[in-house]
Amino acid sequence: MEIVLTDEAAELIPAEVLAVPFTGTLSATASRLDGWLAGGLSQLVAANEASAEPGTAAILHTGDRDRPLARRVALVGVGQAAGVDDDAVRTAAAAAARSLRRIGGTLAWALDAELGTSAEKQVKAVVEGALLGDHDPARWKTGDAVSRAERTVIAQAPAELAPAAARAAIVARWTNRARALVDAPPNEMTPEGLAGAATALLESHPVSVAVYAPDDPAIEDLRALPLVGKGSVNEARLIVLRYRGGPARGDVLALVGKGVTFDSGGFFLKPQDDIVRQKADMGGGAAVIGAIGAIAELGLPLDVLAVIPAAENMIGGGAYRPGDIFTTAAGLSVEITNPDAEGRLILADAIWYAKQHGATHLVDIATLTGAMRGGMGDMYTGVFANRDDWRALLVEAGEASGDHAWPWPLHPRYRRLLESRIADLRNTAGKNFGYPIIAASFLERFAGETPWAHVDIQSTAYLDDQRDYLAAGATGAGVRLLTELATRMSGAYSVAD
User: Fold this and answer.
1) Could you confirm whether 344 is annotated as catalytic?
2) Within 10 Å of residue 432's Cβ, how many Cβ atoms?
3) H helical segments located in 134-223
4) Catalytic (active site) residue 480
5) 364-388, pLDDT tens digit by residue?
6) pLDDT grade, residue 495 (50/70/90)?
7) What is the pLDDT of residue 197?
8) Annotated catalytic residue within 270, 387, 415, 445
9) Cα–Cα distance between 442 and 350 in angstroms, integer?
10) What is the CATH number of domain 171-492?
11) Class of domain 2-155
12) Residue ranges covered by each domain of the chain
Protein backbone atom coordinates (compact mmCIF):
# COMPACT_ATOMS: atom_id res chain seq x y z
CA MET A 1 0.00 0.00 0.00
CA GLU A 2 1.30 3.43 -0.98
CA ILE A 3 1.07 6.26 1.56
CA VAL A 4 0.47 9.81 0.31
CA LEU A 5 0.09 13.09 2.22
CA THR A 6 -1.62 16.13 0.73
CA ASP A 7 -2.76 19.47 2.08
CA GLU A 8 -5.85 19.37 -0.15
CA ALA A 9 -9.31 19.27 1.42
CA ALA A 10 -10.71 15.79 1.97
CA GLU A 11 -13.63 16.31 -0.41
CA LEU A 12 -11.22 16.91 -3.30
CA ILE A 13 -9.55 13.49 -3.08
CA PRO A 14 -10.81 10.90 -5.59
CA ALA A 15 -11.19 7.73 -3.54
CA GLU A 16 -13.29 4.63 -3.11
CA VAL A 17 -13.68 5.45 0.58
CA LEU A 18 -13.18 8.72 2.43
CA ALA A 19 -12.78 8.03 6.16
CA VAL A 20 -13.82 10.78 8.57
CA PRO A 21 -13.06 10.37 12.31
CA PHE A 22 -16.20 10.26 14.44
CA THR A 23 -16.34 10.92 18.19
CA GLY A 24 -20.10 10.88 18.60
CA THR A 25 -20.73 14.27 16.98
CA LEU A 26 -19.88 15.55 13.52
CA SER A 27 -16.61 17.43 13.29
CA ALA A 28 -16.18 20.59 11.20
CA THR A 29 -14.94 18.47 8.29
CA ALA A 30 -17.82 16.03 8.64
CA SER A 31 -20.33 18.88 8.88
CA ARG A 32 -18.96 20.43 5.70
CA LEU A 33 -19.27 17.09 3.92
CA ASP A 34 -22.75 16.64 5.37
CA GLY A 35 -23.88 19.81 3.62
CA TRP A 36 -22.76 18.47 0.25
CA LEU A 37 -24.33 15.10 0.99
CA ALA A 38 -27.82 16.49 1.66
CA GLY A 39 -27.57 15.64 5.36
CA GLY A 40 -26.68 12.01 4.73
CA LEU A 41 -24.09 11.85 7.50
CA SER A 42 -26.49 13.46 9.97
CA GLN A 43 -29.02 10.80 9.07
CA LEU A 44 -26.48 8.05 9.85
CA VAL A 45 -25.94 9.61 13.27
CA ALA A 46 -29.64 10.10 13.94
CA ALA A 47 -30.35 6.48 13.01
CA ASN A 48 -27.63 5.28 15.41
CA GLU A 49 -25.79 3.69 12.50
CA ALA A 50 -22.65 5.67 13.31
CA SER A 51 -20.73 4.82 16.48
CA ALA A 52 -17.73 6.32 18.21
CA GLU A 53 -16.54 2.84 19.16
CA PRO A 54 -13.07 2.34 17.62
CA GLY A 55 -13.16 -0.14 14.77
CA THR A 56 -16.69 0.67 13.64
CA ALA A 57 -17.51 2.28 10.30
CA ALA A 58 -20.82 3.63 9.02
CA ILE A 59 -20.62 3.99 5.24
CA LEU A 60 -22.66 6.31 3.03
CA HIS A 61 -22.61 5.92 -0.74
CA THR A 62 -22.27 9.36 -2.33
CA GLY A 63 -23.96 8.56 -5.64
CA ASP A 64 -23.61 11.14 -8.44
CA ARG A 65 -22.99 14.21 -6.27
CA ASP A 66 -20.23 16.52 -7.44
CA ARG A 67 -18.72 16.64 -3.98
CA PRO A 68 -17.11 14.81 -2.34
CA LEU A 69 -15.17 12.98 -5.08
CA ALA A 70 -15.08 9.83 -2.96
CA ARG A 71 -17.63 7.17 -3.90
CA ARG A 72 -18.26 6.44 -0.23
CA VAL A 73 -17.87 8.42 2.98
CA ALA A 74 -17.29 6.46 6.18
CA LEU A 75 -17.73 7.78 9.68
CA VAL A 76 -15.08 5.76 11.53
CA GLY A 77 -15.22 5.57 15.31
CA VAL A 78 -12.20 6.86 17.23
CA GLY A 79 -13.71 6.91 20.73
CA GLN A 80 -15.23 9.74 22.71
CA ALA A 81 -13.55 13.09 22.15
CA ALA A 82 -11.95 13.21 25.61
CA GLY A 83 -10.40 9.75 25.26
CA VAL A 84 -9.01 9.57 21.73
CA ASP A 85 -5.56 7.94 21.75
CA ASP A 86 -3.15 6.50 19.21
CA ASP A 87 -4.58 2.98 19.46
CA ALA A 88 -8.10 4.27 18.75
CA VAL A 89 -6.88 6.06 15.63
CA ARG A 90 -4.91 2.99 14.51
CA THR A 91 -8.02 0.86 14.98
CA ALA A 92 -10.19 3.29 13.04
CA ALA A 93 -7.67 3.45 10.19
CA ALA A 94 -7.52 -0.35 10.10
CA ALA A 95 -11.30 -0.55 9.87
CA ALA A 96 -11.27 1.98 7.04
CA ALA A 97 -8.59 0.05 5.15
CA ARG A 98 -10.46 -3.23 5.60
CA SER A 99 -13.58 -1.64 4.14
CA LEU A 100 -11.78 -1.64 0.77
CA ARG A 101 -11.37 -5.39 0.70
CA ARG A 102 -13.00 -6.78 -2.41
CA ILE A 103 -13.25 -3.16 -3.66
CA GLY A 104 -9.64 -2.07 -3.97
CA GLY A 105 -8.54 1.41 -4.91
CA THR A 106 -7.78 4.45 -2.77
CA LEU A 107 -8.56 5.15 0.87
CA ALA A 108 -8.66 8.83 1.85
CA TRP A 109 -8.44 9.94 5.48
CA ALA A 110 -9.59 13.36 6.63
CA LEU A 111 -7.04 14.60 9.16
CA ASP A 112 -9.03 16.11 12.02
CA ALA A 113 -7.53 18.90 14.11
CA GLU A 114 -10.38 18.53 16.63
CA LEU A 115 -9.39 15.08 17.87
CA GLY A 116 -7.27 16.34 20.73
CA THR A 117 -4.13 14.58 19.50
CA SER A 118 -1.36 16.26 17.53
CA ALA A 119 -1.43 16.16 13.75
CA GLU A 120 1.89 14.29 13.73
CA LYS A 121 0.67 11.59 16.11
CA GLN A 122 -2.55 11.27 14.14
CA VAL A 123 -0.67 10.86 10.84
CA LYS A 124 1.64 8.21 12.30
CA ALA A 125 -1.30 6.31 13.82
CA VAL A 126 -3.27 6.41 10.55
CA VAL A 127 -0.29 5.08 8.59
CA GLU A 128 0.34 2.30 11.10
CA GLY A 129 -3.33 1.38 11.38
CA ALA A 130 -3.86 1.23 7.63
CA LEU A 131 -0.76 -0.86 6.95
CA LEU A 132 -1.02 -3.17 9.95
CA GLY A 133 -4.80 -3.48 9.67
CA ASP A 134 -4.71 -4.41 5.99
CA HIS A 135 -2.00 -7.06 6.41
CA ASP A 136 -2.96 -10.26 4.59
CA PRO A 137 -1.54 -13.54 5.95
CA ALA A 138 -3.26 -15.75 3.36
CA ARG A 139 -0.53 -16.16 0.74
CA TRP A 140 -1.13 -19.92 0.76
CA LYS A 141 -4.71 -19.59 -0.52
CA THR A 142 -5.09 -20.85 -4.07
CA GLY A 143 -8.13 -18.83 -5.15
CA ASP A 144 -8.15 -15.44 -6.84
CA ALA A 145 -6.47 -12.69 -4.86
CA VAL A 146 -8.82 -10.37 -2.97
CA SER A 147 -8.65 -6.71 -4.00
CA ARG A 148 -7.20 -4.45 -1.30
CA ALA A 149 -6.45 -0.82 -0.68
CA GLU A 150 -3.79 0.30 -3.15
CA ARG A 151 -2.94 3.53 -1.40
CA THR A 152 -3.93 5.69 1.54
CA VAL A 153 -4.12 9.45 1.04
CA ILE A 154 -4.12 11.56 4.21
CA ALA A 155 -5.88 14.81 3.35
CA GLN A 156 -5.49 18.18 5.03
CA ALA A 157 -2.00 17.14 6.21
CA PRO A 158 0.88 19.68 6.33
CA ALA A 159 3.83 18.77 4.12
CA GLU A 160 6.24 18.84 7.07
CA LEU A 161 4.58 15.67 8.39
CA ALA A 162 5.83 13.61 5.43
CA PRO A 163 8.98 12.37 7.27
CA ALA A 164 6.88 11.16 10.20
CA ALA A 165 4.55 9.32 7.83
CA ALA A 166 7.47 7.77 5.96
CA ARG A 167 9.06 6.55 9.19
CA ALA A 168 5.79 5.05 10.40
CA ALA A 169 5.34 3.28 7.07
CA ILE A 170 8.84 1.76 7.19
CA VAL A 171 8.35 0.38 10.70
CA ALA A 172 4.84 -0.91 9.93
CA ARG A 173 6.02 -2.70 6.78
CA TRP A 174 8.84 -4.42 8.68
CA THR A 175 6.35 -5.36 11.37
CA ASN A 176 4.24 -7.01 8.68
CA ARG A 177 7.31 -8.85 7.36
CA ALA A 178 7.90 -10.23 10.83
CA ARG A 179 4.25 -11.27 10.97
CA ALA A 180 4.63 -13.13 7.68
CA LEU A 181 7.58 -15.10 9.10
CA VAL A 182 5.57 -16.16 12.16
CA ASP A 183 2.45 -16.98 10.18
CA ALA A 184 4.42 -19.21 7.80
CA PRO A 185 3.90 -22.97 8.24
CA PRO A 186 6.60 -24.77 10.24
CA ASN A 187 7.37 -27.15 7.39
CA GLU A 188 8.63 -24.08 5.48
CA MET A 189 9.92 -21.99 8.38
CA THR A 190 12.46 -24.48 9.67
CA PRO A 191 15.71 -23.14 11.16
CA GLU A 192 17.25 -23.23 7.70
CA GLY A 193 14.09 -21.67 6.26
CA LEU A 194 14.23 -18.82 8.77
CA ALA A 195 17.87 -18.20 7.90
CA GLY A 196 17.00 -18.12 4.21
CA ALA A 197 14.09 -15.76 4.81
CA ALA A 198 16.29 -13.38 6.80
CA THR A 199 18.87 -13.41 4.04
CA ALA A 200 16.28 -12.67 1.36
CA LEU A 201 14.60 -9.88 3.35
CA LEU A 202 17.84 -8.10 4.19
CA GLU A 203 19.91 -8.61 1.04
CA SER A 204 19.06 -5.16 -0.36
CA HIS A 205 19.78 -3.40 2.95
CA PRO A 206 23.09 -2.56 4.67
CA VAL A 207 22.91 -5.58 6.95
CA SER A 208 25.44 -8.41 6.85
CA VAL A 209 24.05 -11.92 7.31
CA ALA A 210 26.00 -14.91 8.58
CA VAL A 211 24.45 -18.33 9.13
CA TYR A 212 26.19 -21.06 11.12
CA ALA A 213 25.42 -24.76 11.43
CA PRO A 214 26.01 -26.39 14.84
CA ASP A 215 29.26 -28.05 13.69
CA ASP A 216 30.78 -24.77 12.47
CA PRO A 217 33.99 -24.05 14.43
CA ALA A 218 32.89 -20.40 14.76
CA ILE A 219 30.18 -21.41 17.22
CA GLU A 220 31.68 -24.52 18.78
CA ASP A 221 31.27 -23.02 22.27
CA LEU A 222 27.48 -22.73 21.85
CA ARG A 223 26.40 -26.10 23.21
CA ALA A 224 22.75 -25.28 23.93
CA LEU A 225 21.79 -24.85 20.29
CA PRO A 226 22.71 -28.39 19.15
CA LEU A 227 21.40 -29.76 22.45
CA VAL A 228 17.91 -28.36 21.84
CA GLY A 229 17.91 -29.07 18.12
CA LYS A 230 19.27 -32.60 17.99
CA GLY A 231 15.85 -34.23 18.39
CA SER A 232 14.80 -32.88 14.98
CA VAL A 233 15.72 -33.86 11.43
CA ASN A 234 15.89 -30.12 10.71
CA GLU A 235 19.31 -29.00 11.92
CA ALA A 236 19.65 -25.91 14.07
CA ARG A 237 21.15 -22.64 12.82
CA LEU A 238 22.68 -19.55 14.41
CA ILE A 239 21.72 -16.44 12.45
CA VAL A 240 23.94 -13.39 13.03
CA LEU A 241 22.98 -10.02 11.55
CA ARG A 242 25.02 -6.80 11.72
CA TYR A 243 24.11 -3.23 10.90
CA ARG A 244 26.94 -0.72 11.22
CA GLY A 245 25.33 2.68 11.49
CA GLY A 246 27.43 4.13 14.32
CA PRO A 247 29.18 5.40 16.12
CA ALA A 248 26.59 6.56 18.61
CA ARG A 249 28.84 7.12 21.64
CA GLY A 250 30.41 3.76 20.80
CA ASP A 251 27.28 1.82 21.75
CA VAL A 252 26.53 -1.56 20.23
CA LEU A 253 22.93 -2.62 20.76
CA ALA A 254 22.58 -6.40 20.71
CA LEU A 255 19.17 -7.89 19.94
CA VAL A 256 18.85 -11.58 20.76
CA GLY A 257 15.70 -13.28 19.46
CA LYS A 258 14.43 -16.74 20.32
CA GLY A 259 13.99 -18.66 17.08
CA VAL A 260 12.35 -21.97 18.04
CA THR A 261 10.60 -22.62 14.75
CA PHE A 262 8.47 -25.35 16.28
CA ASP A 263 8.26 -26.37 19.91
CA SER A 264 6.72 -29.74 20.63
CA GLY A 265 7.81 -29.48 24.25
CA GLY A 266 10.19 -32.38 23.69
CA PHE A 267 9.74 -35.14 26.27
CA PHE A 268 7.41 -32.78 28.13
CA LEU A 269 5.04 -32.87 25.18
CA LYS A 270 2.67 -29.92 24.98
CA PRO A 271 -1.11 -30.46 25.15
CA GLN A 272 -3.12 -30.40 21.95
CA ASP A 273 -4.69 -26.99 22.47
CA ASP A 274 -1.25 -25.42 22.92
CA ILE A 275 0.90 -27.31 20.44
CA VAL A 276 -1.09 -25.98 17.49
CA ARG A 277 0.34 -22.47 18.14
CA GLN A 278 3.95 -23.54 18.39
CA LYS A 279 5.03 -22.37 14.96
CA ALA A 280 4.89 -18.93 16.61
CA ASP A 281 7.65 -19.79 19.08
CA MET A 282 10.12 -18.01 16.80
CA GLY A 283 8.27 -14.70 17.26
CA GLY A 284 11.28 -13.19 19.04
CA GLY A 285 13.60 -14.08 16.18
CA ALA A 286 11.12 -12.66 13.67
CA ALA A 287 10.89 -9.44 15.70
CA VAL A 288 14.66 -9.06 15.67
CA ILE A 289 14.79 -9.56 11.90
CA GLY A 290 12.04 -6.98 11.42
CA ALA A 291 13.64 -4.52 13.81
CA ILE A 292 17.12 -4.61 12.29
CA GLY A 293 15.54 -4.25 8.84
CA ALA A 294 13.64 -1.16 9.98
CA ILE A 295 16.70 0.26 11.74
CA ALA A 296 18.80 -0.18 8.60
CA GLU A 297 16.17 1.31 6.29
CA LEU A 298 15.80 4.29 8.63
CA GLY A 299 19.58 4.69 8.58
CA LEU A 300 19.87 5.14 12.35
CA PRO A 301 23.36 6.12 13.54
CA LEU A 302 23.86 3.12 15.79
CA ASP A 303 25.67 -0.20 15.55
CA VAL A 304 23.28 -3.14 15.98
CA LEU A 305 24.15 -6.81 16.36
CA ALA A 306 21.33 -9.34 16.06
CA VAL A 307 21.73 -12.96 17.18
CA ILE A 308 18.99 -15.49 16.50
CA PRO A 309 19.45 -19.07 17.71
CA ALA A 310 17.06 -21.13 15.57
CA ALA A 311 16.08 -24.71 16.36
CA GLU A 312 13.19 -27.15 16.51
CA ASN A 313 12.45 -28.71 19.89
CA MET A 314 11.22 -32.15 18.91
CA ILE A 315 10.97 -35.68 20.24
CA GLY A 316 13.38 -38.22 18.79
CA GLY A 317 16.18 -40.61 19.57
CA GLY A 318 18.60 -37.71 19.84
CA ALA A 319 16.36 -35.42 21.89
CA TYR A 320 17.70 -34.18 25.18
CA ARG A 321 16.08 -35.56 28.32
CA PRO A 322 15.00 -34.50 31.80
CA GLY A 323 18.02 -35.07 33.99
CA ASP A 324 20.63 -34.26 31.34
CA ILE A 325 23.40 -31.82 32.32
CA PHE A 326 25.30 -29.66 29.87
CA THR A 327 27.77 -26.82 30.18
CA THR A 328 26.88 -23.49 28.62
CA ALA A 329 29.20 -21.28 26.61
CA ALA A 330 29.57 -19.11 29.71
CA GLY A 331 30.94 -22.10 31.63
CA LEU A 332 27.93 -22.69 33.88
CA SER A 333 26.56 -26.22 34.08
CA VAL A 334 22.78 -26.60 33.77
CA GLU A 335 20.62 -29.49 34.94
CA ILE A 336 17.64 -30.04 32.62
CA THR A 337 14.54 -30.31 34.78
CA ASN A 338 12.14 -29.45 31.95
CA PRO A 339 12.94 -29.95 28.24
CA ASP A 340 10.03 -27.63 27.40
CA ALA A 341 12.05 -24.74 28.88
CA GLU A 342 14.39 -24.79 25.91
CA GLY A 343 14.17 -21.14 24.89
CA ARG A 344 16.15 -19.88 27.87
CA LEU A 345 18.91 -22.39 27.09
CA ILE A 346 19.58 -21.19 23.57
CA LEU A 347 19.09 -17.56 24.60
CA ALA A 348 21.70 -17.94 27.36
CA ASP A 349 24.34 -19.01 24.86
CA ALA A 350 23.23 -16.35 22.36
CA ILE A 351 23.57 -13.66 25.05
CA TRP A 352 27.11 -14.90 25.74
CA TYR A 353 27.87 -14.80 22.01
CA ALA A 354 26.58 -11.23 21.70
CA LYS A 355 28.74 -10.13 24.62
CA GLN A 356 31.79 -11.77 23.06
CA HIS A 357 31.13 -9.83 19.85
CA GLY A 358 30.99 -6.36 21.29
CA ALA A 359 27.54 -5.80 22.80
CA THR A 360 27.39 -2.83 25.17
CA HIS A 361 23.62 -3.07 25.67
CA LEU A 362 21.53 -6.24 25.44
CA VAL A 363 17.90 -7.02 24.81
CA ASP A 364 16.60 -10.55 24.42
CA ILE A 365 13.07 -11.02 23.14
CA ALA A 366 11.15 -14.27 23.27
CA THR A 367 7.84 -16.06 23.49
CA LEU A 368 9.19 -17.53 26.68
CA THR A 369 6.54 -18.32 29.30
CA GLY A 370 2.88 -19.20 28.93
CA ALA A 371 2.21 -17.65 32.31
CA MET A 372 2.88 -14.24 30.77
CA ARG A 373 -0.23 -14.72 28.68
CA GLY A 374 -2.18 -15.73 31.76
CA GLY A 375 -1.05 -12.66 33.66
CA MET A 376 -1.07 -9.98 30.97
CA GLY A 377 -3.74 -11.11 28.52
CA ASP A 378 -3.00 -10.26 24.91
CA MET A 379 -2.27 -6.54 25.33
CA TYR A 380 0.97 -6.00 27.25
CA THR A 381 4.48 -7.36 26.90
CA GLY A 382 6.50 -7.95 30.07
CA VAL A 383 9.91 -6.31 30.49
CA PHE A 384 12.60 -7.38 32.98
CA ALA A 385 16.06 -5.87 33.36
CA ASN A 386 19.15 -5.79 35.53
CA ARG A 387 19.01 -1.97 35.66
CA ASP A 388 16.01 0.19 36.41
CA ASP A 389 16.93 2.92 33.89
CA TRP A 390 17.38 0.39 31.09
CA ARG A 391 14.06 -1.29 31.87
CA ALA A 392 12.35 2.12 31.98
CA LEU A 393 13.75 3.01 28.56
CA LEU A 394 12.32 -0.16 27.04
CA VAL A 395 8.93 0.35 28.64
CA GLU A 396 8.86 3.95 27.37
CA ALA A 397 9.83 2.76 23.89
CA GLY A 398 7.03 0.22 23.95
CA GLU A 399 4.41 2.72 25.04
CA ALA A 400 5.55 5.33 22.52
CA SER A 401 5.53 2.84 19.64
CA GLY A 402 2.25 1.03 20.32
CA ASP A 403 4.01 -2.18 21.44
CA HIS A 404 2.63 -1.74 24.93
CA ALA A 405 5.03 -2.88 27.66
CA TRP A 406 4.89 -3.25 31.42
CA PRO A 407 7.78 -3.47 33.94
CA TRP A 408 8.16 -6.69 35.90
CA PRO A 409 10.22 -7.25 39.06
CA LEU A 410 13.53 -9.08 39.12
CA HIS A 411 15.03 -9.60 42.58
CA PRO A 412 18.19 -11.56 43.42
CA ARG A 413 16.26 -13.71 45.87
CA TYR A 414 14.50 -15.44 42.95
CA ARG A 415 17.82 -17.01 42.00
CA ARG A 416 17.56 -19.50 44.86
CA LEU A 417 14.72 -21.20 42.99
CA LEU A 418 17.15 -22.19 40.22
CA GLU A 419 19.75 -23.75 42.49
CA SER A 420 20.57 -27.36 41.61
CA ARG A 421 21.95 -30.05 43.92
CA ILE A 422 24.21 -31.43 41.20
CA ALA A 423 24.95 -28.55 38.79
CA ASP A 424 25.47 -24.79 38.86
CA LEU A 425 21.79 -24.22 38.18
CA ARG A 426 18.73 -25.88 36.71
CA ASN A 427 16.61 -24.59 33.87
CA THR A 428 13.32 -24.47 35.84
CA ALA A 429 12.40 -24.14 39.48
CA GLY A 430 9.94 -27.02 39.57
CA LYS A 431 7.42 -24.74 41.29
CA ASN A 432 3.94 -23.75 40.15
CA PHE A 433 4.49 -20.01 40.56
CA GLY A 434 6.56 -17.14 39.23
CA TYR A 435 7.34 -18.67 35.84
CA PRO A 436 8.14 -15.44 33.92
CA ILE A 437 10.32 -14.04 36.71
CA ILE A 438 12.19 -17.31 37.21
CA ALA A 439 12.88 -17.55 33.47
CA ALA A 440 14.20 -13.99 33.48
CA SER A 441 16.34 -14.79 36.54
CA PHE A 442 17.92 -17.66 34.60
CA LEU A 443 18.85 -15.36 31.72
CA GLU A 444 20.12 -12.67 34.06
CA ARG A 445 22.90 -15.02 35.18
CA PHE A 446 24.36 -14.82 31.67
CA ALA A 447 24.03 -11.06 31.13
CA GLY A 448 26.49 -10.15 33.87
CA GLU A 449 27.05 -6.41 34.32
CA THR A 450 26.08 -5.50 30.76
CA PRO A 451 22.84 -3.48 30.69
CA TRP A 452 20.37 -6.21 29.75
CA ALA A 453 16.64 -6.55 29.38
CA HIS A 454 14.40 -9.52 28.75
CA VAL A 455 11.20 -8.92 26.77
CA ASP A 456 8.64 -11.72 27.07
CA ILE A 457 6.18 -11.49 24.17
CA GLN A 458 4.35 -14.74 24.85
CA SER A 459 1.20 -12.74 25.57
CA THR A 460 1.34 -10.52 22.48
CA ALA A 461 3.12 -12.28 19.63
CA TYR A 462 0.17 -14.34 18.41
CA LEU A 463 -3.54 -13.61 18.78
CA ASP A 464 -6.35 -16.15 18.80
CA ASP A 465 -8.84 -13.45 17.81
CA GLN A 466 -8.71 -10.02 16.21
CA ARG A 467 -7.77 -7.24 18.63
CA ASP A 468 -8.19 -3.61 17.64
CA TYR A 469 -6.14 -3.04 14.48
CA LEU A 470 -4.43 -6.45 14.57
CA ALA A 471 -6.01 -9.52 12.99
CA ALA A 472 -5.86 -12.99 14.51
CA GLY A 473 -2.47 -14.62 14.08
CA ALA A 474 0.97 -13.10 14.21
CA THR A 475 1.27 -9.48 15.40
CA GLY A 476 4.94 -8.66 14.86
CA ALA A 477 5.21 -7.82 18.56
CA GLY A 478 8.54 -6.25 19.40
CA VAL A 479 9.47 -4.75 16.03
CA ARG A 480 8.10 -1.32 16.88
CA LEU A 481 9.44 -1.42 20.45
CA LEU A 482 12.97 -2.38 19.40
CA THR A 483 13.05 0.15 16.56
CA GLU A 484 11.93 2.91 18.92
CA LEU A 485 14.56 1.82 21.44
CA ALA A 486 17.27 2.03 18.78
CA THR A 487 15.95 5.45 17.71
CA ARG A 488 16.27 6.74 21.27
CA MET A 489 19.73 5.23 21.70
CA SER A 490 20.94 6.70 18.40
CA GLY A 491 20.74 10.27 19.64
CA ALA A 492 17.15 11.41 19.78
CA TYR A 493 17.12 10.47 23.47
CA SER A 494 19.92 10.01 25.98
CA VAL A 495 20.75 6.66 27.52
CA ALA A 496 22.06 6.78 31.09
CA ASP A 497 25.53 5.36 31.62
Assistant:
1) yes
2) 7
3) 162-183, 191-202
4) no
5) 999 999 899 888 999 999 999 999 9
6) very low
7) 98
8) 270
9) 13
10) 3.40.630.10
11) alpha beta
12) 2-155, 171-492
